[in-house]
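B., you asked whether I could sanity-check this one before it goes into the benchmark set. Here's the sequence:
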Amino acid sequence: MRAKSIIYFGAFWDQSYFSPEGLYSASHPPLYVWLTALSYSLFGVNEFSARFFSALFSIGITIVIFFSGKLYYDSKTGFFAALLIIFNPFFNFWSMQGQFDIALTFFTGIAFYMYLLSGKKESFHLYLLTGLFIGLALLTKLFVGSIVIFSIILFEILNRDERNYQRIVTILLTSALIALPWHLFMILEHSGSDFLFFFKQSQMFERAFSGIENNSKELGFFFFLNQSIVYFPLFVVPFIFYIFFEAKKVSRNLFVIWFLLYFLIISAVSTKLPVYLLLLLIPLSLVATNSLMKFLKNYTSKREIFLFLTSINLLVSWSLSNEFRTMFKNIFRGNYSNFSQFLMNYWWIFAFFFLIESVIFYASFSSKKVNLLPLVLGASLSCYFAIYLNTVLMNTYEDLDSGIEHIVDYINHNPNYNVIAVGHGINPQFSFYSDGLDIGWQKEKSFRRLDPENGYEEIYNYLLSNEFKNTYIIYEKSDFYLRNLTHPDLVIPVKFKSLIETNEYILYSAENNK
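And here's what the prediction gave me:
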């Protein structure tokens, strides 16, 4: 929507007057917004354009992983780390989303690469490039790009022989030169001289201590540990092995410092989203891949290799299905009513585990020395491919489509009609497809949102007691406060006629009330 506002209204520097929830959603830095606007101007305003730069940056991330691994470890580590990321379902999912995080991960990763390269070549130009990419990261997502700065400072504090004050000062000044102009402009435009403006606007205190937008998680501090196991099962065990068995090298490894510092921060704050893990992909993949390759090459005990690979096999099997994990947790808590159904539905996961375990047992205790690396990598890539195949076969486009385009097309056939939406807060998806109908872009139409946050009775009574003419009502089924309702009749009186029902919406007509 912010990129659209640049195309439609020329709002290049500040999109807050045209954005969903105004300044709240326009306070994130605009670099990815600018790039999306460029994509719109080249390819038209559509989903392909919105996703284009995210896909492009995802390719860039795999290249950064390869060259970072080659620079810091060796070319094999870089190659296999990039290969495993290319096949990772989590990474591929976010590569197709038109959001900030893939671009942020790319700029962060290339900034670290330039910093490492500057340590080997001592070039002022590399200092400038490091600062440039940190500045671009800071222009991509609010505050998060600063993880590069904090990681570098901590690394140089822990390693006196790496300390270079000219490099640090150059990096800081260059990144500030890139990132500060837009931030200062927004501070002066919207607060006068309040330099805590962005901290307040982003609800930094609330994000850290209470959670916002219903994104506090039941697991609390351990949420991202569980998410790492689910999304990156092949990496977790080798990374933990590195931390425990090569603890003396931790302070010398910039990738480990990057991972641990950011992991502890996101685990400590109350607001938690799985997408935060993207910024950990580069250090996690490189450290874990190198640790995996070294262990498989240099292990000393058959029992060690058996336990090591069995642990990986358990985590990979656990990651195969969310429904499997949910049913397993229920059974573990003592609910045995669906045990037989559990076995029938997920026999293939058990079969997968025992098949891989048989190979591991043979490879570990065989009298012949077996090259385990191809076996482990082959099994893992086969697992990831199986997840993709299951997604393609089990989830058609119709299953994944929210139906919002169909709803908006129907509304547009009667342009003089007013619209009421039932749902909490904002709905950027509706804003995008309706060209800002809900945020005031279309002055000729009336729009009103009825928020169910405080209960349904007030909405029900309002709709029941008023007469409406030339009006559509959109019921947002996937809304946080509506998705667990047994039936929409609890909110929408039966006098309204249902016109269209999609996966996430129901469109009603109020024309029977003329």
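One thing to flag: The beta strands are 418-422, 447-450, 471-476, 497-501, 505-509. Otherwise nothing jumped out at me.
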